[in-house]
Design a protein that fits this description.
Helix content of chain B: 25-40%
Largest interface: A-B, 15 and 16 residues
Number of helices of chain B: 7
Mean pLDDT of chain B: 89
Mean pLDDT of chain A: 84
Low-confidence stretches of chain A: none
Oligomer: heterodimer
Number of strands of chain A: 23
Order of helices and strands of chain B: EEEEHHEEEHHHHH
Strand content of chain B: 15-25%
Strand content of chain A: 15-25%
CATH architecture of the largest domain in chain A: 3-Layer(aba) Sandwich
Radius of gyration of chain A: 29 Å
CATH superfamily of the largest domain in chain A: P-loop containing nucleotide triphosphate hydrolases
Strand order of the largest sheet of chain A: 9-8-23-22-21-10-20-19-11-18-14-15
Distance between the termini of chain A: 64 Å
Number of domains of chain B: 2
């Protein structure tokens, strides 16, 4: 038998794990306190820490508590130390004090329990015992938690300072419930959303209907440094993504390939489509009530007749009936000015020849993802809300019908659908969320195979009940207290993560929590670029040419 | 039996578990000194009790009283009185450790910090600790607690002097590390008394 030292030489010694400190108190609800060791350089351990990092606490019974750092503090064994600190010029005293009386402390939130023989981590229901040792999580620990990347697990980023470790989003679970991407303007919401959407398309875990307000998803987009990134239509050039535009001229100018044109006839617009615009175009409660009356009295072309300046007989007749006050109708006429086709070019006086709702519905059911590109109309919130509401209501209706048929075994199950909307607080405002289609979709979960992916910078503007139904929340930097509070609404124990969220970098960092990840995780988001393109299977032109050549050669042999 | 070749610097007058007092004639310039590490055999030579000198008392006697009052005292009388004293110089030692698990031979045992199982007995010879013994005895800082809790010893002075001499016995490259460790232990023990701690740290800093 070899002596131990020889075996060590042969297999190479495993370096001891650097210890962070030991558990000295805390609770499951408030977080566990870890007193940090002074480290090689006193104070060095604390300065190397960051909220959002992972820590593993080895309990006294061999259980490993996988935890996230939620707060970092300076502490001392004697409160008087703050009043009479050592002279910083006296290196000896400073060194002794900062490695004994003064120490760093971590507050960690245990999230998962890793047991020796269990294949999967379990939710934490207790805390590690006093004086259990805490270590920085290794790549192996993190991999054990987040699992390998596979067909349904999409690499979305890496934990902070662990670039080799992949944090994978469980796409099947992600599309099961409505999800949200939140963050201040300019924090990279669109890039994360595009990465997630690319994963969903690749994995075919759902089909997407994307209301692309700022032309971010369909075709090429440039960042603030002028670098160009490919849109979904470019990455999936096999017809799995189609771009339908409301503004063909802008699409042409952007060299964006489009697959269809959306036109909405004014006669196709119902009062329910306009109701959601009340806050945007300034309709009062009385005026909203009058919408239904007008539709009933004036018929399908109620908007056309309301806007008709030549033939005012119908309006005068309504005024004469005195069901609606004269002033109300006049005010509504003014507010309906935005529906004039010369202001919103995608509207037309007569119904367009193609039924785009039907087209989109069938495309979605074939597995084709639809990006609705707004072009210049993205600058008009009213246009965006009108179109999103108009299409979603009708497609959801068809989904409900199809699902009911499937339940009665008279048809196939509709494909799971994810509807991506931006500026979501305009659709899910507490005043309207209770009775709009988007509020319904968020609340009914996956009952009809339709969920939302909401992208928003003001989550505090979203109805609380809707927020509590958001399964997975991907949050970039938020600094408004109300927004931070909103993101954590309905998440148990999330209060501890507030600091984590408030300290994210301004770009390429996000906190993910909820249904699609085993535990909250702060990630450096995956670069949206060539590596991601390659992971999707996209070939740039030279590579594609090579592939074509190889295929041709395999079929017909070499020319020479 | 312990075999020790170190020079005897005195003989034991009285002892207790917590410490002992030995007597000696006129002190040499180098021994005994405040803060020195000394040892006394105990348990019939099976162990040595290691201690720190914390007080040296030179008592008067009848001759000294008379001579002090004598005008124009001859230098020869002074020298004679010092060398042939009637009353010994009393040196108080605080016990801080002892050889543990020692069967035979002083170099084979390890030094345990703490109070010895038995005190040394009268007239046992007292010797200075060797460099190895000082280094081993101060390898852990447990003795600091004993010193701080000693009711009669000037604890802060004793700690400062003993630590500085223990550091001086170590290789130069180890001294800072040693004193830093001692400082941390003192900070732990005196965390409630910051002014005292700061004073002590200033005394031991290299």
């Amino acid at each position: 038998m070899h002596p131990l030292s020889e075996l060590d030489d042969f297999f190479a010694k495993v370096p001891p794990r650097p210890r962070l400190g030991l558990v000295v108190g805390g609770s499951l609800s408030q977080g566990v306190l870890v007193k940090l060791d002074p480290g090689q350089v006193p104070g060095g351990v604390i300065e190397d820490m960051a909220v959002g990092r992972y820590v593993v606490v080895e309990g006294k019974t061999g259980k490993k508590f996988f935890s996230i750092v939620t707060d970092i503090a300076l502490d001392s064994t004697n409160p008087d130390l703050a009043k009479s600190p050592p002279d910083p010029d006296d290196a000896f005293l400073a060194d002794v004090y900062s490695s004994s009386l003064a120490f760093g402390a971590l507050k960690i939130a245990p999230m998962l329990l890793l047991e020796h023989e269990a294949s999967e981590p379990k939710p934490v229901k207790t805390v590690p015992a006093h004086f259990s040792l805490a270590y920085p999580a290794t790549e192996a620990d993190v991999n054990q938690v987040f699992g390998p990347e596979d067909a349904q697990h999409w690499h979305i980023g890496s934990p902070l300072d662990m670039e080799q470790v992949k944090v994978n989003l469980d796409l099947k679970r992600f599309v099961e419930r409505s999800s949200g991407v939140f963050g201040k303007s300019g924090t990279g919401k669109s890039f994360i959303t595009r990465t997630i959407l690319a994963g969903i398309v690749k994995a075919d875990s759902a089909v997407n209907l994307i209301f692309d307000m700022h032309n971010d998803y369909g075709w090429a987009v440039k960042d603030e440094h002028g670098r160009e990134f490919k849109g979904l239509r470019q990455l999936f050039d096999n017809g799995r993504v189609q771009v339908i535009t409301l503004d063909p001229e802008t699409s042409r100018h952007r060299n964006s390939k489009t697959d269809g044109l959306l036109r909405i006839g004014l006669e196709q617009i119902e009062p329910e489509d306009v109701e959601m615009l009340a806050g945007i175009i300034g309709l009062t409660e009385v005026q909203v009530g009058a919408l239904y009356y007008l539709r009933r009295k004036l018929g399908p072309d109620w908007i056309v007749r309301l806007l008709d300046e030549e033939d005012t007989a119908a309006i005068q007749e309504l005024e004469a009936e005195e069901k609606v006050q004269k002033g109300t109708l006049r005010a509504m006429q003014r507010k309906f000015e935005m529906f004039r086709p010369d202001r919103l070019g995608f509207l037309s006086l007569r119904p367009p020849p193609d039924d785009m709702v039907e087209y989109i519905f069938h495309a979605l059911n074939r597995g084709t993802n639809i990006v609705l590109e707004f072009g210049v109309y993205g600058n008009s919130l009213a246009a965006y809300v009108l179109v999103a509401n108009y299409l979603t209501r009708r497609i959801h209706e068809k989904y409900v019908d199809m699902k009911n048929r499937a339940a009665g075994r008279r048809g196939e199950e509709p494909r799971p659908l994810v509807i991506t909307i931006e500026e979501a607080h305009k659709f899910l405002d507490p005043d309207i969320a209770g009775h709009t289609i988007f509020g319904n979709i968020a609340r009914e979960l996956r009952k009809y195979n339709v969920t939302l992916l909401i992208v928003d910078q003001r989550p505090s503007g979203i109805d609380e009940e809707v927020m509590s139904q958001i399964g997975t929340r991907i949050t970039c930097l938020l600094d408004n207290e109300a927004d931070i509070k909103a993101v954590f609404s309905g998440v148990s124990g999330a209060g501890q993560l507030r600091e984590v969220l408030a300290r994210l970098d301004t770009q390429q960092q996000a906190l993910i929590l909820g249904h699609a990840v085993p535990m909250p995780v702060v990630i450096k988001t995956r670069d949206y670029g060539p590596d991601l393109y390659a992971a999707i299977g996209f070939l740039d032109e030279p590579a594609a040419r090579e592939k074509r050549k190889a295929a041709k050669s395999a079929l017909y042999g070499d020319d020479d | 039996m312990l075999v020790d070749t170190a020079v005897t610097i005195g003989r034991l007058l009285r002892s207790a578990t917590t410490g002992y007092v030995f007597g000696c004639s006129v002190p040499e310039p180098d021994v005994p000194r405040f803060g020195d590490f000394v040892k006394a055999p105990a348990q019939r030579g099976r162990t040595n009790v290691i201690g720190l000198i914390y007080n040296i008392v030179i008592e008067d006697d009848a001759f000294v009283r008379q001579m002090v009052a004598t005008p124009d005292l001859d230098e020869a009388y002074i020298l004679d009185q010092r060398l042939n004293r009637q009353v010994p110089i009393e040196v108080s030692v605080l016990s801080i450790g002892y050889y543990d698990g020692l069967g035979n031979g002083s170099s084979a045992g390890t030094i345990a910090c703490g109070l010895p199982p038995q005190p040394p007995v009268t007239l046992d010879s007292i010797r200075p600790c060797t460099q190895r013994e000082v280094i081993e005895c101060t390898g852990s800082f447990e003795y600091l607690r004993l010193v701080l809790n000693a009711p009669d010893a000037p604890a802060d002075e004793l700690i400062a002097v003993s630590l500085r001499s223990a550091a001086a016995m170590r290789p130069p490259e180890d001294r800072l590390f040693f004193l830093r460790g001692a400082g941390r232990e003192l900070a732990r023990l005196l965390s409630r008394d910051l002014p005292r701690l700061e004073n002590l740290l200033r005394r031991i800093k290299p």
